[in-house]
Amino acid sequence: MQYLLLCCFEEARWEALSATERDRVMHDYSALIESLGKSGHYVGGAKLASTRAATTLRERAGTPVVTDGPYAETKEQLGGYHLIECRDLDEALAIAQRIPTLPVGGTVEVRPIEYRA
Amino acid sequence: MSADVQDNIAERIDALYRSDSRRIFATLIRLLGDFDIAEEALHDAFRSALEQWPRDGVPANPRAWLVSTGRFKAIDGIRRRARFRPIDDVADAVEAIVDESVRFADDESIEDDRLRLVFTCCHPALSPDAQVALTLREVCGLTTEAIAQAFLTPAPTLAQRIVRAKAKIRDARIPYVVPDAHELPARLDSVLRVVYLVFNEGYSASSGDALTRVDLSAEAIRLGRLIVDMLPDAEAIGLLALMLLHESRRAARSSAEGEIVLLEAQDRAQWNAALIREGNELLSRALASRRFGAYTLQAAIAAAHANAPASEHTNWAQIVALYDVLLRIEPSPIVALNRAVAVAMRDGPQAGLAEIDAIEGRGELAGYHLLHAARADLCRRAGDAHAAKQAYERALALAKQQPERRFLMRRLAELTPKGGPDAAFRHDRRSSSAATPKSRV
């Protein structure tokens, strides 16, 4: 069973962290991904660029409308994701608890994958 | 076989259904991996018993017979539906069921399965409302209608809540296991919270006509016993002690007319001595473990009341000390309010009022009727009828439960001598002026 871990963080807060702190978090991410790769849990993932670089597309009356910014204005923004292979939700939650942005105020949403293309 | 014997067997099956169907269901969930398939298998198994037992006799181990019959019926059903599904899916589904390790119907594994079911229904990935509804439905076997009635929720809303929770268990694959040792404390907290919530809703319903709802409390105590039997954790034992000590006072808590009788006015002869004894024993066990927490401390407070031969013999100093510890491990304004009342009983109403002022000063519990009721009572004891009246009125504006409302109205009326509220106000002003140094001379 696969789960997607959606790592959310307040961008302003992320930018307010010192360079050293951000480096440490990113280093911890690398270590986590390496360990999950060895244990056979890791499927794939990515860190996303800031929502300032986001462009949203909708369709109004049959015409595509392009706007600047993310699809929803929220306090926290999606900053990255990881796809993992787990036995069940408890195993996925145990892995999600190791996400390095959690101790610095991040949120992780755990979503089961229904099927993959 | 004679009609008499047949009736007898039907009665036995009926009794078995009432006593054991939820246990059998819990095992079937583990064997079949799905709540709905297990529910169907359970009913198929009992239907087969009604057909076969009168003809072939009652099997040596009826429970094991029902589990294996239910399992075979389910496998049969999956195979029958096979014609409409891709062959691989069916092979996987049947294999998953048939390959299950041999131990599936002895008494010990059946009790393990009940505990697994409790942990699945109380999984923190489910909303608190869903945890309560699912536990009552799946573990206790209450009907959706009964649960809806108990929580004053429309039955379709509650049914939908249960359906959604079951879908989440399936789709997110919430496991059917008792958690590992390192996860157990956090997960057990969630289970105990559900049990205590069910008990409280039965013990002092948050709204409605009746003061208590016996069924829910009985279910909570039954769950508490199951957990203690399977997982003798200090807090699980403490919670069971707490529930039994509260339960011991049920008969004395309301009058024949359904009116509230406060602890100090209760007829202690009506308290259930057997429950108090059992509660005390469990409390000693929990305290001896030295790893106890908030439930055990609350049980110790309940025991201090239960063991006082009369209201005036209550050891308020001990109760305040227990609240001090409780407040340290569970800093909640409700605990602070209860502590304030205990302080008032130890040191007099003014001391208690100062504590209540402090709680309100922190901006807490302003909308909680019992804070105003407690303030009113302390003002009344301190002889300040005017302040008492105001506080009773605020409490009344916030209280939703009918017996509580009637109690507050009675207290309010007692403050009001003949001649209406105006007279009470005048009387009050007179009494407060009587307290000035000049008129005391």
Task: Tell me what you see in this structure.
The complex is a heterodimer of chains A (about 120) and B (about 450). With about 120 residues, chain A is of the alpha+beta class. Chain A has helices at about 10-15, 20-40, 90-95, and strands at about 1-10, 40-45, 55-60, 65-70, 75-85, 105-110. Chain A has one domain (about 1-45, about 75-110): 2-Layer Sandwich (Alpha-Beta Plaits). In chain A, about 30% of the residues lie in helices and about 35% in strands. In chain A, strand 3 (about 55-60) and strand 4 (about 65-70) form a beta hairpin. Chain A is globular and about 50 Å long. Chain B starts with a helix and ends with a helix. Among the domains of chain B are: about 5-105, Rna Polymerase Sigma Factor, Chain: A; about 365-440, no CATH class. Chain B is an all-alpha fold. The chains are: A alpha+beta (about 120), B mainly alpha (about 450). The interface of A and B includes residues 87, 89, 90, 112 and 114 of A.
Task: Quickly describe the structure.
The complex is a heterodimer of chains A (117) and B (441). Chain A is built from three helices and six strands.
Keywords:
heterodimer, A: 117 residues, alpha+beta, Alpha-Beta Plaits, 4-stranded antiparallel β-sheet, two-stranded antiparallel ribbon, 3 helices, 6 strands, 29% helix, 35% strand, B: 441 residues, mainly alpha, Rna Polymerase Sigma Factor, Chain: A, 22 helices
List the helices and strands and how they pair.
The complex is a heterodimer of chains A (117) and B (441).
Chain A: E1 2-9, H1 11-16, H2 19-38, E2 42-47, E3 55-60, E4 63-68, E5 77-85, H3 89-96, E6 107-112
Antiparallel strand pairs in A: 1-5, 1-6, 2-5, 3-4
Chain B: H1 3-32, H2 35-56, H3 62-80, H4 87-98, H5 107-121, H6 128-139, H7 144-150, H8 155-171, H9 184-203, H10 214-230, H11 234-247, H12 250-253, H13 273-289, H14 294-306, H15 316-329, H16 333-347, H17 349-361, H18 369-382, H19 385-398, H20 402-415, H21 420-434, H22 437-440
Helix pairs in contact in B: 1-2, 1-3, 1-5, 2-3, 3-4, 5-6, 6-8, 6-9, 7-8, 9-10, 9-11, 10-11, 11-13, 11-14, 13-14, 14-15, 15-16, 16-17, 17-18, 18-19, 19-20
